[in-house]
Design goal:
By secondary structure, the chain is α+β, with helices and mostly antiparallel strands. It has one domain (about 5-99): Arc Repressor Mutant, subunit A, CATH 1.10.10. The protein contains four helices and three strands, in the order αβααββα. The protein has helices at about 15-25, 30-35, 40-55, 75-99, and strands at about 25-30, 55-65, 65-75. Strands 1-3-2 form a three-stranded antiparallel beta sheet. It is elongated, with a radius of gyration of 15 Å. It starts with 12 loop residues before the first helix and ends with a helix. InterPro entries: ArsR-like_HTH (IPR011991), HTH_ArsR_DNA-bd_dom (IPR001845), WH-like_DNA-bd_sf (IPR036388), WH_DNA-bd_dom (IPR027395), WH_DNA-bd_sf (IPR036390). This is Regulatory protein. It holds the Pfam family HTH_34. One of its GO terms (molecular function) is DNA-binding transcription factor activity.
């Protein structure tokens, strides 16, 4: 396994953290995810938009009362690609342990 072959969309610190959070928690609001990851609004927005563009997460915008609310959830494709990413990462780590 070559580290360069890891999923480049997921294999970035903030995007990996977003995916990990959504795999474990299911659905999170913008403020929840921002606080959990300790990132800026802009940083979260840019990385989430890229994940959505690739079909890995879904971003829903609605209103809670009169306040706008953004909610993130993982798609089935996102879950599948994340699991593949983890398998490849584990395979790579196993090779390192053998060396």
């Amino acid at each position: 396994m070559n580290p360069a072959e890891l999923n480049k969309v997921i294999h970035e610190r903030v995007r990996l953290a977003i995916m990990s959070a959504l795999v474990t928690r299911g659905r999170l609001t913008f403020p929840e995810l921002k606080e959990m990851l300790d990132v800026t609004d802009g940083n979260l927005s840019v990385h989430a938009a890229l994940l959505e563009k690739h079909g890995l997460i879904r971003i829903d915008k609605d209103f809670h009362g009169k306040k706008p609310r953004t909610t993130f959830s993982i798609t089935e494709e996102g879950r599948r690609q994340f699991q593949e990413y983890i398998v490849e990462l584990e395979r790579m780590l196993a090779q390192v342990k053998k060396a």
